[in-house]
User: Fold these one by one.
Assistant:
Number 1:
Amino acid sequence: MDLTLLWTIQLAPLAVFALIFILPKNARGIAPLLGLTGSAAAAVSALCFLLAHAGKAGQPALHYSVDWLTIDLPAAWPLGKAVSGTLKAGFLLDPLNLLMITLVTVISFFVQLFSFYYMREDESRPRYFAYLSFFSFAMTGLVLASNLLQTFMFWELVGLASYLLIGFWYTKPSAAQAARKAFVLNRLGDLGFYLGIVILFVGLGTLDFTGLGKDAVLSALGPTLAMAAGLLVLTGVMGKSAQFPLHIWLPDAMEGPTPVSALIHSATMVAAGVFLLVRAYGVFSASEVTLEVILLLGCVTGLIGALLATRQRDIKKILAYSTVSQLGLMAAGVGAHAPQAAMFHLTTHAFFKSCLFLTSGAFIHRFHSNDIWTIARGGGRKDLVPMLTLTVGLLSLCGLPPLSGFFSKDLILEAAKHHGLAAFAACVAVSVLTAYYSFRLLFIVLFARPTAGHGHGHHAHGHDAGGHHEDLLGGLSRALPLLLLAALSIYAGFLGSPMTHSPILVWLGGHEAHFDPAMAVKTLVIIAVGCAIAFALHRDPDASEKKLESSKGPWAMLVDRRFFIDDAFVWVTKQVGLRIASFFDLMDRWLVNGVLVNGTSYRIADLGRLAVRLQSGSLQGYLACGLAVLAVTLLWLTGGSSR
Amino acid sequence: MTSLMTELIYLTGILGTLCLAIGRGERPRRWALGLGLLTAVAAAIASACSSGSVTELFGGTYRVDPLSQGYKAVIASALAVCLWLTERGPSESRRVEVYLFYLCSALGLTLMTGSTGFVSLYVAMELSSYSLYLLAASREDRRATEGALRYLLTGAIASGVFLWGVSILCGLTGGATFAALTQAAPALTSDPLFIGALALTSFAFLFKLSAFPVHFWAPDAYQSAPLAATTLIATASKAGAVAVISRFLIASGVPVAFAGWTGLLAFVSMTLGNTAALHQADVKRLLAYSSIAQAGYILTGLLAGTADGYSSAFFYATVYALMNCGAFLVVSAVAADAKNDNPTVRHFDGLADRQPFLALVLLLSLLSLAGIPPLAGFTGKWVLFSAAMDQGHWFLVLWGVLNSVVSLFYYLTLVKHSYLEKAPAGSQPLRLTPVTRLLALAIFAGLVFLGVYPTPLIEYARSAVSAIAG
């Protein structure tokens, strides 16, 4: 039974993906329905699974696996030691990924539902739903994998899905470029990941998560190699979870359709890195240095993301930088020895951030603009359902009690405080900034005066398109995911709250959270400070827009140029990468092509001409040649062996 | 009697065709074609069905065993394809009596695979060869006659040398059967006369295999014979030759000096065939040089002298017949469309647009000939070369692999013409009859299947070889 459910979760989206592509052209219209069915099947199976197994702490993990390849290498350079081990393929299910799989399938379902509304006018809708299903397949594979190599394979597949979906509108140059950027930066990280896997396999002879405990890694590899393996695997995480300095692809990835941003680039795929940090925690915790690096990177990423979010005017960019900064917080949580807290924050973040992204999608689809001032003046605040979910999502994001963000962020803050003052300070700063940009967004949409022109445009559009409001199916697929996700953003926090004895944390193997009044007060103060600054600066949206446009200070420039990190990448590529490339280009043209390849082929062709000349057409010649060869060899054979 | 089923089927077919040959015109010809196809298919089925039995007949000069039945099935299947190809060949090569020669030559080849005595072997070889000489000449123009004459004279010399070798062997071993050879061979391995006699005897086999130094007939005969006959020479005749060499070498063993000599011939064959093929424009001639090179590969596997070598030679012979059938099927379709029995690479321009499926089959057959995974040709070369490698012939294997790279060039030239060049203006889509399409599909499936899942056939070959050796 368990295995059937697992296969359903794993294969239903793949079946949908395949089905959509083999559908005849005129039946492609049912693609959204297929996508919805597939994701619903996966989500229901995952929920069944969760209900059957939830709460049973201490229960052994379900482990199904088959041997895939047995590797036996003799001791040889460069390893200097014999390598033997078995690569397996299978499912490993424990509370951690049961939680994650539920998250992934449920949000995936909501996003498919919302896409029904969002993509209804798009020509290439079947392709969209096929890719989305393919992503679900890859993501579930990643989560359910029982070993690191299998994780890596699906890790690459989600990367591919992400590439395809960022570049979904591939005729738009910016989208194509963003897709390429995401792909290349992720490959850069995955290179390290792969090397890390190789080191682990050579050292341990297994890649199963069950065999990757802290002690096993430490005793097999020794402290230095363990650190190297941890740091190398970490580079993969940096790529996927957009940690500094590889975070620069994520904001650009917003070129994809908004539901995609909600699913892949905020809730699930980018969180896969953090998931891996928790999943293979043994590998990272084997070295204290690795954990410190994770903490440092997390704090830096959190600060950079939050700072960059404060000066954006594109609603999706705000949310994207916010995602970067929250991912930084999660990584910091892992670095501060609190993987359960990080996982909890991942869960709540997935709910409220996907809610926020879908909300932004609802605005964007209605007002045909990503600009928050345009949305605000178009009458965004009158659009009740999105406005409500926006408020809930943002409040949860800045951690207002008792919304879900409060509990999870609190735990991370606490862990950071426990770890050291610097980390705590960084996390507090991130929180203040988060509160600031959240309220900035909220105030601008709330306080802006609708202008006649925009309002008119909106109404005109409503009439032209046959009216979004009247269409029951469209309205439902628009409002339903938003409201349900908003509800989850409100209540999901109680899973980890001290009031309910934090079942989720205990289940994941952590300690029960304790209610710390001082911490709650601190959080409130943080929110109040952020809110006050935002109110002071943005109570008049028109003025704040003018100010944003006119500010020219060094700080403004620094933020607008994204701290020059993108420029640094470009500079390094041009100065170092291109020079190396042009050297190899020269070698390739002259040495490889000119001398080796062409030279050899000309000589062979000459040889062929000689062979053809042998075929002169004279029969006597042929026979003489044949018999002469025979005579010579006979002499050689008989003479040679008699001596 | 049941063990001679295949041979009896051929005989029946031959008698039937002989009767039909009294008539003239189109109708008897159609009947003869139908009868021929029926005979070929029945023979293939009969040999496949009797592949479990081992029988020794006629005083140890003829043997029916799994190895011979396997080769017989390959020969009969190849014959069926060739007979089907005559349907669209040039009209003068489509007379009734032509089918008689096809069947006779196939019968000869079939007998070759089972012969275990020198006399029966000689008779069988000449039966198949003389029929092939006539088929090569059946186009009735000056060039065809010239090509066939070259084929005939080279064959006659090879037969003479063969008989010379056989007479020495009989003298040395005191018998004219392979069994006598096997008995006497261990004591003679270092006798120069014995090794010389082996070389002389195998001269005729090399001729059949079109290996250096008796390969000269191949380009001319391939080019001037009608396409269907060329196909028979390139597929069934090669399979028969591999069968005979395997059996002969199993009986005699492979002395070191003899292996060295064969290795040298293999080396020259590969190099000469592949490099000369680079300069050919006529596709039939190109494939002739390709078959010279392939003879080198096969010799490399055979000279290993192990059970692995012989079984992989069987596997490769099967695959080789299959991929050559594929290539010639496409060539003949193009030739029939161009109304030119000697198509050049230019005739393949734009084939992928005119008939995508045929272009695909051509692509797969040629890639398989070049030995690209996951196709059957790759697996075949793999087992062949690994058998040679096990005996330490790494230089030949290395050379063979390098040669495969060279061969890719001319194989891919054809592919390039069919996929990248534009079809000449005004050319029509190329039509295929359903049977041709089915044949192409079967070859396509076979190439992929044997490449991906070769184990059953290789296992069969292993057990067949061990049934003889053990």
Number 2:
Amino acid sequence: MSHLFEHEGADGKGYSQPDPVAPVDNLQIPSSLVRAKLPRWPRLSEPEMVRHYTWLSTRNFGIDTGFYPLGSCTMKHNPRINEVIAQLPGIADIHPLQPEHQIQGTLAIFHEMQDMLGICAGMDAVTLQPVAGAQGEFTAIRCIQEYFRGRGELGRTKVIVPDSAHGTNPASAAMAGFEIIEIPSREDGRIDLDALRAVVGDDTAAMMITNPSTLGVFEPEIAQAADIVHEAGGQMYYDGANFNAILGRTSPGLMGFDAVHYNLHKTFSQPHGGGGPGSGPIGVKSHLAKFLPGPVVKRRPILAGDQLTSVNKEWWYHWHQPENSIGKVQQWHGNSGAVVRCWAYYRRYGRELKTMSEHAVLNANYLRHKIIEEAEKIGVRHLFADGAPVDVVKHEFTISMAPMKEECGIGAMDIAKGLLDMGYMAPTVYFPLIVPECMMVEPTETESKETLDEFAKKFVEVLQEDPDVLHNAPVTTKVRRVDEVYAARNLTLSYPFDE
Amino acid sequence: MVDQLPNLGREKEMLDAMGMSSIDDLFADIPEAVRMTEELPLPPPQSEEEIISDARRLLGANVALGDRVNFLGAGLNRNYVPASVFQLVTRGEFLTSYTPYQPEVSQGMLQAMWEFQTLISELVGLEVANLSVYDGSTAAAEALTCAVRVHNRKAEQKDTVYVSELVPPSRRSVIHNYTQGGGIEVKTLHHNSDGTLNLDSLSQAAGSCGIYVEQPNPLGILDGGLTRVKEIIGENTAFVVGVAPVSLGVIEAPGNYNADIVVGEGQALGSPITYGGPLYGIFACTKTYLRQMPGRIVGRSIDVDDKEAFCLTLSTREQHIRRHRATSNICTNETLIALMGAMHMSLLGPEGLEKLAQRNMAACQLAKQKLSEISTIAIPHRNNSHFNEFVVELPGSAAECIAYLDTQGLIGGFDLSAWYPERKNWLLVSFSDQTKATEIELLAAHLAVWSASLVQGVSA
């Protein structure tokens, strides 16, 4: 165990800095504001700092380390050229308040991304400003809120979410001030149209839903659901977390949605960075476009007097403030670095984005099939149940470990820890909440058949493991099972200097 | 042909194994009525070489700050970030991991974020810090909603918070969007003509749920009066301060003058400006606010062998468990950028931070001295102390001055009429550790020439 704060080198250790441009013995600081005591930061030389963080990195599992089938998170390979591009000074070293003529290249990329995202989702207008999926949800719900306020429909105070929804859906709508109506899913995990009909009315603002659902299942009655909500005067919101499943095959626009967020970091591979940054643009139909956060990028033909750059062959790119904009959700223009990375990713596929989704779905179905086949081969198929009884899934699938839990007390978490011992990241566990002892598996399109074959075998091996071994798993990891209750009861949220 | 798909060309083999005959079988569950029948109207796929070439062409057409002499800041400063930070952060184990739901294989990022929390706690002088929110603006907004959750029951002014009138419209707008859903009224705190907070105006905020001010404020002013804020607003009103983190190498930590919540834009520590994102928002508070704070928190724990281990904690505040009753909808945050911040802070050490702050302040002070020698311009808050930036009052419009400086190869600063429409002649000029004395001389020379031409024009 190495602690950063145990590095207590000599005063002034660290990287050397040039001297100030002027003497600092008479810095003008109000006497009440002179810092009395410097922070207790460590003192490291560069070699020590590099070794500390390299050591930490060896204690962390990423996609580069191994198979990362974390359902709902789309952990696909992150091409490194995107990182190189994001370091170019034309994006890393530009300021959001620079005048338009100095940033035509960035605006051109943003414009291309707005267009591409609109095309893929069947939406009329796009903003790149929201910086994460949850913020995209919130932004779109705010646009819908202002839309209804503009129409004087102030009684539309409720947002409907299925019980299988991502937690961010109800949290985002509640943050915008809406009351949440949760509707139960059918036994097979699909949307219950009768339950939906029972709750819609003139107080309905919107329904938030993802399709394929969090069970990895396409909702065949989505258009009917959209009709029910629209007939009641509500808006349809598409949670784009699962967009990787359907690109080029269908679109939220075709399904009848009015607004959508994209998780660029999932679908277009901005590295997830241990928890962020992400990027959560939204797309809307034309009736919501004037409410988008501003500004958005537009272009017009070149005019005499424009300060042209090599980018301006025909078009001049400029910022545009939507007429009834809800304002800002991030004070600048969103996670531009992520947008540029995702632009590079999109360019790699272009019109063949469909192939990307097809392979995501191919891999998910193949893995599901292989796991069942391997389990049947050795007689352990009865230990788990399908999260949703369907012939085909989309980009992910869910299985319930409830039967195994009943038979030998081994549940989803134990299986997850057993998989860690096999060298894998575990699937998402205990989500969606409607599937008991749920494991949610999303292989993504960037895993080879061999990886999937091997994982299926290992997964079934874990099922046959001695329950005591699984209760004790993991044993091969840097630390063994971590006591989360202890952490909450003995809150130590920073280094205890006095310990 | 796309090159990111290991199973390209093996589709048939995999479909055969499943007893399927075509990829279409996998999408048979999508009703015909909603199927996309046309090809996506997009260009063909590109190779890595073509993409980098296009990226260089497009982004190369931009003017990078480093290509020019730059005085544009307005809250984002072009500080030097050591090379080792950029090298280390590309380690795939960090870069390609996600939220550490499985702590046993995520100890690296968990420990790094626990250390980050400690670095931030020490920096701002508060007991608790989370592992980042999106940026400085959402940090401020989430601090105010947090303050309402904590204080509303006892507050005399229910559902009410106060925000400094100097806070720029962009940040105000974020605050509005985050607070309006809770029916929170955002009232205004006024400032004196010298830019400091008006303490009489502040006294009206006593009994509300919280107040938000910035130190340095958006005009770059360091306000000594803020050390008296807490005694004026009282125990049941949250004192929220937005900071420029580098300044805290010389300026007192707000926790030590009784701030309850400290937020800020972390960017200057660890991250390039990157056109305003990704950045990272700092969020720290006293224990009173802990259970109502947004975002993820790492705690120290033990494993089954009693070995020290780290994991996410207090997750019951969060959306994936609490759903619509969560303290915030935030899920994905800015962990990787916060990690860059932690690396930068580690390399600085306490004295390094102090020196960095002194360099920033010295550049600002030298510039103030040089520009105050020019008789045709004025420095309205000249007697205040400043960090990173100050206002120059011009004899003509700031927009025209910036356009002139642009023709001379300078990014001249920020036209404050964009924030305060009545201030047509206010130019906000920014200086950082990257500002050289010769660059300050150059700015002074150009401002002298431009303003003199204007003054002569007027008198003629």
